[in-house]
Amino acid sequence: MLKKPCGTFDETYAQDMSVIRTPYRGGLLILLFLFLFVITPLIADNYALGVMNLIGISVIAMMGLNILTGYCGQISIGHVAFIAVGAYTSSILSQHLGWPFWATFPSAILVSGLMGMVIGLPTLRIKGFYIAISTLAFHYIIVWAILHGGDLTKGVWGLPCEFPELFGISFNTEKKMYYLIMILAVIGTVLAFNLVRSKFGRGFVAVRDNDIAAEFMGLNIFRLKSIAFIICAMYAGAAGSLYAHYLGMITVEQFPLIDSIWYLGFLIVGGLGSISGAIFGVVFYRLIAQIVLFAAPMISEALPFLSVSGVAGFTQMLFGLVIILFLVLEPRGAIHRWQLTLTSFRLWPFPY
Amino acid sequence: MEKTSQTELLQLKSLNLSFGGVSALNQIDLSIYEGELLALIGPNGAGKTCLLNCINGFYKPDTGQIKYKGRDITSVPLRNRAHLGIARVFQGIQLYEGLSTLDNLLAGAHFFIDYNILSAFLYVGKAKREEIRQRRKVEEIIDFLEIEHVRKKRVGELPYGLQKRIDLGRAMAMSPDLLLLDEPMAGMNLEEKEDMARFILDIHEEWGTTIVLVEHDMGVVMDVADRLVVFDFGQKIAEGTPDEISKNPKVIGAYLGVEV
Fold it and tell me: What CATH code would you report for A44-347?
């Protein structure tokens, strides 16, 4: 029902290219909107909203990494550093200069984007593994800069950051923040979705799959890679800015290197080069974390030799296991498996 | 083939290329005329692919000059030569595996599609119009190559013969004036070879594209080519019509062999 029935053909190319191809898809989208903006705020308590807020922020960050790593094939392990750049830009502007949210948010995106451009420059000469290492270096440069930023970043003490204020509304509760984050996450996702089906998206995949052939075909590889880096950094900047304004306080410890690796893990689980896969990866990880958190006291009771905090560490082990299982069993991610399932339902009972 | 004119589309003048001590191309002089189907033949390692790479701009010749449409393009970089209308079908499969057939062809037409990143983000107005306009052009090629049924399949999942055809389609999407085909029929069965030969002839005749074909299957080459150029050890040893070449003792000795 998500695809048109056999024998029904599109009559124009615009129809064939449209996203909402059947009424069911439109219905699903409306349901999703209802779930996000009506049902969840109604039934969720503050704790659940907090989890959703973190998911929303991660989704925004994820969209960027998905474009850079998933589509363009450039592995970045400096993603959290870009998020930190966004977060610190926002905090510094809001703390030292008293800028409001509507000014700090775009500034954070811009500053991150500029950083992305600088980091993207070496990609002219290097690729693959080496690009990953250069982004790793970037992470340490940012951490060093934050720690030695003096009054600007307040070193290890961290910086406070105001709650966002827009049109006279202060987003000072979880619920208000939830609306803001979700609206931005939806916008970010839609923009990313459009980008990857445009000529730029095709160019990114061309660079990923066969960069030499792409150059023979007249594509400007360096420009495409730079664009991917800049967009990735801008998404990270947006996520970082929201994160800072949401938490109200940031320190350098909130941006550990390991998170960059987890982001890559989300991508693997969800499926490289797929928007819905990227979202799935993030949601899946947060859910595992919550399940482990709830189950930890029970497990600890049943197995007294394990402390509660010891069990809580299972999240990372569990997710590590999940990543390994995906790599072995379904390297193309959950989204690929989902599409296979859909297709087999559609074709049943025929083999093809 | 009366369409073959005497206007030179591409001129190679005393081209030299060597890797280390090995001379890959040695004083090559060659003219390719507008609208002709020229075949390059010769044993493996004779320098055929090297020559294509020089025309494409992937290799820069050590000395010599390449003139295209009367303009010296020796120092024009790879990417810009595609914009000038030089397209290439590679040896083996060099497609963008993660993209669908349609997207592979559209990626071939990448530099014809004109909109900026902002409209790409919004995907309304110009972006959408341009995509539809390009789609119409690409659909013609899809129709021509008879690959409608795999239009939306990931090319990585398709059989070799089809992938090769899509590779040809992607090159056609660049609307080339000069199409370089590097062993388009390698590893194909007879039926697929016949199909491919038919497509090549059709492109040549219907679209008037100048084609340079590198191929080992002598049966095909002798049938489709207007003119042949024979290479051996980086040197051009003969040039002429299929009839002349098949009787040329130098070529028989170096490549064709004698019937026993």
Answer: 1.10.3470
Q: Are residues B2 and B58 in the same domain?
A: yes
Using an 8 Å Cβ cutoff, are A240 and A90 in contact? Answer: yes
For residue A188, the chain B residue with the least C-alpha distance is: B121
In a shared domain, residues B53 and B80: yes
Last residue of one domain, picked from the residues B175, B198, B226? B175
| Interface touch B107/A227, C-beta < 8 Å | no
Decide which of B150, B175, B200 is a domain's last residue: B175
pLDDT confidence of residue B1: 46
Specify if B33 maps to a domain: yes
Residues of B36-50 as b/e, b for ≥16 C-beta within 10 angstroms? bbbbbbbeeebbbbb
**Would you call B56 an interface residue with chain A, using a CB distance cutoff of 8 Å?**
yes
CA distances from A240 to A164, A258, B115 (A): 13, 16, 30
B53 and A CB contact within 8 Å: no
Q: Distance from B243 to chain A by nearest Cα, in Å?
A: 34
Q: Do B98 and A214 touch (CB under 8 A)?
A: no
**Token pair for residue A209?**
């799959």
Given an 8 Å threshold on Cβ–Cβ distance, is A213 in contact with B110? Answer: no
Search chain B and give the residue with CA nearest A221.
B79
CA A26, CA A29: separation in Å to the nearest integer?
5
Residues of A in contact with B174 (CB under 8 A): 217-218
Instruction: Kindly state whether residues B72 and B109 are assigned to the same domain.
Output: no
Q: Indicate yes or no: CB of B95 within 8 angstroms of CB of A14.
A: no
Residue B51 lies in a domain: yes
Order the strands of the B86-89 sheet from edge to edge.
B86-89, B178-182, B210-214, B37-41, B227-232, B235-240
Residue of B nearest to A70 (CA): B98
Q: What are phi and psi of A173, to 5 degrees?
A: -120, 165
Looking up residue B98, the CATH number of its domain turns out to be: 3.40.50.300
Closest CA to A319 of A232, A254, A258, A240: A258
Contact with chain A for residue B59, Cβ under 8 A = no
Domain of B7 in residue numbering reads as 1-85+177-184+210-260
Residue B79 has its nearest CB partner, among A14, A202, A215, at A215
Q: What is the pLDDT of residues A284-337, one digit of tens each?
A: 888 888 887 777 777 777 777 777 677 767 777 888 888 888 888 888 888 888
ipTM of the predicted structure? 0.87
Total domains in chain B come to: 2
Residues B31 and B105 occupy one common structural domain: no
Q: Which of B91, B107, B21, B79 is nearest to B52 (CA)?
A: B91
Do B80 and B120 lie in one domain? The reply is no
Angle at A87 between CA B119 and CA A126, to 5 degrees: 65
Residue B252 lies in a domain: yes
**d(C-alpha A234, C-alpha A112), whole Å:** 5
- Please write the tens of the pLDDT for every residue from A74-99: 888 989 999 999 999 999 998 888 88
Cβ contact A210–B95 (<8 Å): yes
| Same domain for B95 and B70 | no
